[in-house]
C-alpha cells in the first residue's frame, strides 16, 4: 500500500517562474546605464560561455570550494563582460554588483500564468508545499517579491543544501523537512533528469512539466507528464482518491 499524499515539492525556475527577458538584454540594459553600447546577442553568447565555465569548474556556486552564490554570480558577470571587451576592473565590479541585486527584483522575473492558481489548488486539497531548487540564497527574496513565498512551508536551495539536483541528497534534505516518507510526497519540475528521474528513483511521485513539448522520452507515462500546471491538481486529486480507496 502506498502512503497517503501529504506534500508537494516544487522546482522553481522554468516551473513556477522564468527570467522575464533574455540575460543578454538585461545585461545590456545595465551596461547602457554605465555608458556602454553592447550587442545583446554577443552578450548572451558570452554569458553562456562564462556560465558553462563556472558551472564546470565551480559547480553549485562553488560552495565546496570556498565560494558562495554572490561571489560566484559576480564572477560570472565579470567574465561575461570581459569576453565582450570590457576590461576596466571598477566598471566590471559595478556591473557585477548591480546585476546580482537586479535579479532579486520581480521586474526581472515572470510568474507563469498558471502558477498561483495551481499552488492555491494544491493547498485547497490539504497538501503542504515545499521547494527543492538549484538556486542561490536570493530565492526567498525573489519568491517574496513575486508574492509566492507564503505558499511554501520551507525552501531547500542547492546553495543552502551544499549539493544540487540531480544528487539525491538535496531531496533527502527536503524529505526530512517534510517529516514523511517519499511515498507521501509528489514533486513537480521541468527537467527530465534533475526533477523527474531523480524524484522517481527515490520513490517520490514525480511529475514532468513539459510546457513546450520538448521532452520525447517514450517511457514517461502520460499520467506523469503535464503540459500546464493547470493539470496538476486533478492528477494529485486522483492520487488522493486512490489512497482513500486503497
General description of the model:
By secondary structure, the protein is of the alpha/beta class. The chain is built from 10 helices and 8 strands. The chain has helices at 23-33, 40-57, 69-82, 89-102, 115-124, 139-145, 158-161, 168-178, 192-201, 232-245, and strands at 7-10, 17-19, 109-111, 128-133, 154-157, 185-189, 205-209, 225-226. The longest helix is centred in the first third of the chain and has 18 residues, at 40-57. The radius of gyration is 19 Å and the shape is elongated.
Let me know the number of strands. Answer: 8
Shape: elongated
**Low-confidence parts lasting 5 or more residues at pLDDT below 50?**
none
Largest beta-sheet characterization: 6 strands, parallel
- Given the structure, what is the number of helices? 10
Mean pLDDT metric = 95
Distance between the termini: 7 Å
Helical proportion, percent range:
40-55%
- C-alpha Rg (nearest Å): 19 Å
How does the helix and strand content classify structurally?
A: alpha/beta
Major beta sheet, strand line-up: 5-4-1-6-7-8
**Approximately what portion of the residues adopt beta-strand conformation?**
5-15%
Order of helices and strands: EEHHHHEHEHEHHEHEEH
Amino acid at each position: 500500500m502506498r502512503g497517503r499524499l501529504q506534500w508537494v515539492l516544487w522546482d522553481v525556475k522554468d516551473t513556477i517562474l522564468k527570467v522575464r527577458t533574455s540575460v543578454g538584454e538585461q545585461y545590456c540594459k545595465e551596461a547602457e546605464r554605465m555608458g556602454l553600447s553592447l550587442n545583446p546577442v554577443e552578450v548572451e553568447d558570452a554569458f553562456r560561455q562564462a556560465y558553462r565555465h563556472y558551472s564546470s569548474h565551480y559547480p553549485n556556486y562553488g560552495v565546496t570550494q570556498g565560494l558562495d552564490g554572490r561571489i560566484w554570480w559576480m564572477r560570472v558577470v565579470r567574465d561575461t563582460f570581459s569576453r565582450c571587451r570590457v576590461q576596466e576592473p571598477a566598471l566590471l565590479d559595478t556591473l557585477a554588483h548591480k546585476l546580482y541585486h537586479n535579479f532579486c527584483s520581480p521586474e526581472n522575473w515572470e510568474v507563469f500564468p498558471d502558477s498561483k492558481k495551481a499552488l492555491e489548488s494544491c493547498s485547497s486539497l490539504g497538501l503542504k508545499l515545499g521547494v527543492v531548487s538549484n538556486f542561490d540564497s536570493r530565492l526567498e527574496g525573489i519568491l517574496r517579491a513575486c508574492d509566492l513565498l507564503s505558499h511554501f512551508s520551507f525552501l531547500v536551495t542547492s546553495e543552502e543544501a551544499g549539493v544540487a539536483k540531480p544528487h539525491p541528497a538535496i531531496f533527502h534534505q527536503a524529505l526530512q523537512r517534510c517529516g514523511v516518507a517519499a511515498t507521501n510526497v509528489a514533486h513537480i519540475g521541468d527537467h527530465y533528469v534533475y526533477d523527474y528521474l531523480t524524484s522517481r528513483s527515490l520513490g517520490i511521485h514525480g511529475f514532468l512539466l513539459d510546457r513546450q513539448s520538448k521532452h520525447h522520452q517514450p517511457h514517461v507515462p502520460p499520467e506523469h507528464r503535464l503540459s500546464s500546471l493547470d493539470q496538476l491538481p486533478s492528477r494529485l486529486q486522483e492520487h488522493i482518491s486512490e489512497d482513500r480507496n486503497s
